[in-house]
Structure formats: C-alpha cells, structure tokens
Amino acid sequence: MLGEVSSMLANDPVTQARLDLTAALRCAARHGLNEGVCNHFSMAVPGREDLFLVNPMGLHWSEVTPGDLVIADFDGNMIEGKYEVENSAFFIHGRIHQGNKRAQVVLHTHMPYATALTSIQDGRIEMCTQNAFRYWSRIAYDDVYCGVALSAAEGDRMCQALGDKDILFLRNHGVIVSGPTVAKAYDDLYYLERTAMVQVLAMQTGRPLHNIDAALAAETYRQIAGDAVLAEQHFESLKRLLDRDEPGWRKSAA
After folding, report:
1. CB–CB of 39/174 below 8 Å?
2. Rounded CA separation 168/171 (Å)
3. Are strands 139-142 and 51-54 parallel, antiparallel or unpaired?
4. Which of 13, 20, 56, 152 is the least buried, fewest Cβ under 10 Å from its Cβ?
5. What DSSP string runs through the chain?
6. Residue by residue, what is the 3-state secondary structure of 133-187?
7. Residues 221, 231, 26, 24: what is their CA dihedral angle, to the nearest 10 degrees?
8. How many CB atoms sit inside 10 A of residue 220's CB?
9. Which residues of the chain register pLDDT less than 70?
C-alpha cells in the first residue's frame, strides 16, 4: 500500500513540479548562480493557468525543499504554503506568467558574468563561442533601468520587453530565463552564465572578439536545438548528484 501511494505521488504533476523547481534552486546554489536569499524561480502550476509555484522569502536556495515552495495567484495572494513571498516575485514572475503563457517556467538571477554584461554599455551576448550560438535570436535586451521592480506596471514592462524571446537581459540588473519546462529553462540558465563567463574572460585580454557570421550562427543554433534531449539528460544528472550529495532534498514533496 505504501509503495502504491509513493508511486501515485511521484506521478502527480504538481508534486513533480515541486521536485523540479527545488532541484533547480539547489543546483543554482551549487553553480554559484544565486545571490543571498534574493531572486526567484517560478513555474505555472500544472493544470492551473492562474497560479504559480515560487520559492519563499528568507530561505537560502540550498535549503529549500519541495514542501517549502509557495503556490500563489497573480494578485499576490498565497494559496498554499507556510512562508511569505517577497513582493518582487509577484511583480516580476506573476506578471510574466500572466502575460506570457509561453513562459511556463521563469528563472530570475543576478548571476555574476551575465549581470556583468548588463552593466556595460551595449552589453550583449556576442556570437563568438559555440555556447553563444545556442542563444541566436533568442535574447531580448531591456536597456532601461527603472529601479527595483515593485509595481505591476514594471512587471508588465518586463513582460512586454521579453516578447517572443526566451531570455531577457535587464540593464544594470540581471537576467530572466523562461522556458516550457524546468529542465529546459535551467539548461539555458546554466549555459548562459558559462557563455557570459567565457566572453568576459575573452574581453579581458583586450583583443577583439572573433564573431562568426549570422548564417553560420543560425545554422549552429539549429544543430544545437535539434539535441533537445540533452537538457533533460543534464537536469536528470543534476538530480542524481543531489540525491548523492544532499540526501533529504526531496522531503515534503507531497
């Protein structure tokens, strides 16, 4: 009987969403993509387009468990959870989830190398490395900084700036990565920071970057996009590492 219950819980889409979002938060801490107890990862609640899962206020990403995640609505109401949620989660994540249904998963960080590019004039991901080519024509750039996102109007402005792209660079702020699944969004987040890191290192040499032409960048993007299974394999491997190194991370998943 207990085995049947465990199997049913494991197949529940909301339980799986909690597990995946928790894994992404913990892996982001392991990869140095987090910053204090700030920023948020969120996901539309499976089967409910009016609700989203998000990490709570005050917990370090490395200590979050599935049971700690909060379910909230777009009006700032907590539907399920034992913790409060910081206001910017509603003004950024809530507005993007409500206004852009492509963005089933929304990851916002101030990760250092990508944020460094948002802090320089005309900072862009340049087509100078193979990892960069995976982002060909997928990044929007918001070049207007308006302070901390503490209004629905600011969240709506970010949502509009994201448009039909998957990634948004926020001038003097950080980045937003969206996607259809946690695995796909986290894979993009991870490789985006690696891309930015190599570019910043190359820029520090003082030598010109060697960008490739648009046609080859587009073709290489298509080649990389054709291997979509790699994102799932990457994310599953990260969860195995969590099982090995951080036993108990799955607790309170139900």
Report:
1. yes
2. 9
3. unpaired
4. 13
5. -HHHHHHHHHH-HHHHHHHHHHHHHHHHHHTT---TT--EEEEEPTT-TTEEEEPPTT--GGG--GGG-EEEETTS-EEE-SS---HHIIIIIIHHHHH-TT-SEEEEE--HHHHHHHTSTT----S-SHHHHTTTTTEEEE----SS--SHHHHHHHHHHHTT-SEEEETTTEEEEEESSHHHHHHHHHHHHHHHHHHHHHHTTTSPP-PPPHHHHHHHHHHHHTTTHHHHHHHHHHHHHHHHHSTTTTTT--
6. HCCCCCEEEECCCCCCCCCHHHHHHHHHHHCCCCEEEECCCEEEEEECCHHHHHH
7. 80
8. 17
9. 1-10, 253-254
Q: What is the pLDDT of residues 16-29, one digit of tens each?
A: 999 999 999 999 99
**Chain length of the chain:** 254
Structure tokens at 248: 């108990």
Mind listing the domains of the chain with CATH numbers? Answer: 2-245 (3.40.225.10)
Q: At what angle do helices 229-245 and 13-30 cross, to 10 degrees?
A: 80
Distance CA 109, CA 57 (A): 15
Residue 204 φ/ψ, nearest 5 degrees: -70, -15
* Amino acid residing at 18: R
User: CB-based burial of residue 235 (10 Å sphere; 0-12 exposed, 13-18 middle, 19+ buried)?
Assistant: buried
User: For residue range 130-164, what is the model confidence (pLDDT) as tens digits?
Assistant: 999 999 999 999 999 998 998 999 999 999 999 99
Calpha distance 150→144 (Å, rounded): 15
